[in-house]
User: What shape does this take?
Amino acid sequence: MRIGVFDSGIGGLTVLAEALERLPGARYLYFADTASVPYGDKPRAEVQACVCAGVDFLAAQGLDALVVACNTATSVAIAELRARHPFPIIGMEPAVKPALALLPPGSGRALVLATDLTLREEKFQALVNRIDADARVDYLSLPGLVAFAEAFQFDPAVVMPYLREATAHLDLAAYGAVVLGCTHFPYFRRHLAQLLPAGAALVDGNRGTVNNLAAHLGPAPAGPGSVAFFESGAPAAPARFQRFLAYLAQEG
Assistant: This one.
């Protein structure tokens, strides 16, 4: 069972970590488009071209399924990818519906954190319009978190001032649920938790995405699996990626 996992950088490792727990016997091919990261501030057409080129590379390795482990890439390219390739392609979607389900009926708000391009896309706007009948969803772009994650910068002394400034205009006490709408953002769960009221939920779509993958593929194969890493079309040494996976395991 060969599963491709595509992301602009190291954000998709948060999805890979979930997949390794759920389907540990699979062979994973992880593609980080580090030559083009970040995607969130680029024109739509440029991002779509980058995603299609990267997935074409993975497809040439032979895949049983692909996870587009990037909300921005999913927003701009999922339809084109499915038209180009015959294998199941699982995308990401900001977990707005699960977040709203956690709020008490008629009270509380949800905040979606994502990239500029994800928030601008018609796909996201249609999602919110479909399920947010009471207008309880706000959203905020946090591109700095992508840059911090790519640089392995998780020092609270650096991250927290950025978050406080970026959220200063919001009444954070109003939010009962916060959606991590970029796969880079789960690296910052403990940082975000410091800003939010006690009991506020941090919700991402990673588990749901992997559940969807498992439903398409069936039982995981027996025996040990493997992960091969690629950066923008070239084989990559695993040490950098394993450092991020170790950080995620430590954060729990």
Residues 2-92+206-251 form a domain with the Rossmann fold fold (CATH 3.40.50.1860). The chain has a mean pLDDT of 93. DSSP finds eleven helices and ten strands in the chain.
